[in-house]
Design brief:
55% strand; mainly beta; 5 strands; globular; 5-stranded mixed barrel; 71 residues; 0% helix
């Protein structure tokens, strides 16, 4: 799955990194590396939705990033 959007930090349950995707949805980020965690950065990412994942933040589906690049 490919997604593009803006990385944002949300101060929920100790903090969580999300992707505000161009499709209008919010995805909780997993995977990638520490460089992906830059508030306001636009990225294109490839990965998969972890349908069985349960998180404390509950901000949206968990998107496990396998690769990404800044836009």
């Amino acid at each position: 799955m490919k997604l593009s959007g803006t990385v944002q930090y949300q101060d929920l349950e100790g903090g969580v990194w999300v992707l505000k995707a161009d499709d209008g949805r919010t995805y909780q980020l997993a995977g990638g590396d520490r460089k992906i965690k830059k508030d306001g950065q636009r990225i294109s990412a490839e990965g998969s939705i972890q349908r069985d994942a349960v998180t404390a933040a509950m901000v949206g589906p968990v998107f496990h990033v396998s690769s990404y690049k800044p836009e």
